[in-house]
What does this fold into?
Amino acid sequence: MRKRILLVVLAFLMLAMSSCTLFDGLIDDESSSGSSATSSSTSDEIKHEHSFTKTVVPSICDQKGYTRNICACGYEYIDDFINPTAAHTFVRGICSTCGEISFADILNLVSTEAMKANVAVEAVYSNKGYAFSVEMGKSNGSGVIIDYSNGEYYFLTNNHVVYHKELADKSNQIKYYVTDYAGNKYLATLVLESARADYDLALLKFTSQDKYTVLDLEEGNKEIGNMVVSLGQPQGQPNTITVGKITNYGRVKITGSDVTECNVSFDTLHHDAYINSGSSGGALLDKELNVIGVNYAGAIKDDGTSEGSYAIPVEKIYEYFKLIGYEYEPFNNGQQSVPQA
It folds into this structure.
């Protein structure tokens, strides 16, 4: 009996030494073996009023806010979703608060604005005689308008689009044509002897009184994982839009093309937006609709699906401009527009 009483006392003492409990009220005096004064003193030691430090995580767009309540004793609880949900504020398809993308808004902008910078490119090879000329063949691809000056639009495409060795060897004349997004066709000319196989790029220009969007080049290469939008004419289908992301940067071995047409040996931009024959020379855009590359090659499976798409990255485009002596300056300072009349 004495041993049992001792154990009860020890248990009570251990409870009294606890620095923090969740008791809401005092111990009943009648349940204590001591006087009421002793009982009151003991219950004051046991009682603990939590003192919480609050950390508020505010609501950001569709991410609801909450308050985290932490006591010095380690006890904590969270008030979920105490702040009202705020709406996204999309500016040109990108939320100005959290950076989330509205694919619908971006695709609408691509369709109504960026597509007006997309062109189809054609090189016609012929043997010209005194009385007539005989057409020997054509090479086709895509292009993107990147500059404007005095009624002339400048566009980028691939070297292998405007130069096909086999056809060139059989011809004594090459003429270049560009067809805009609306189907209007113009004669184009090569700028500064700019066709270069080592970059697989060519810069051409055409004259028109119509108004087209001029797309700016991005300042530098985008990181892996970033969204991309591809424009072009895959298999002759005009004004095609495909969407994907950057998957890698690295070198690619190209087959089926002569080194005088395409001889790229540097790291290129890899992405998974669908392209096909006819997409060569087309624009690769970021979510801000700036040019981050020019498509030049793709791997297509037997069933017609894409196995990988490749583009000349924008930093190599700037390097190419320096080599051909073309002084490029952004036309829009980050905003797509058409030249004013």
About this structure: The mean pLDDT is 82. The domain at 106-324 is CATH 2.40.10.120 (Thrombin, subunit H).
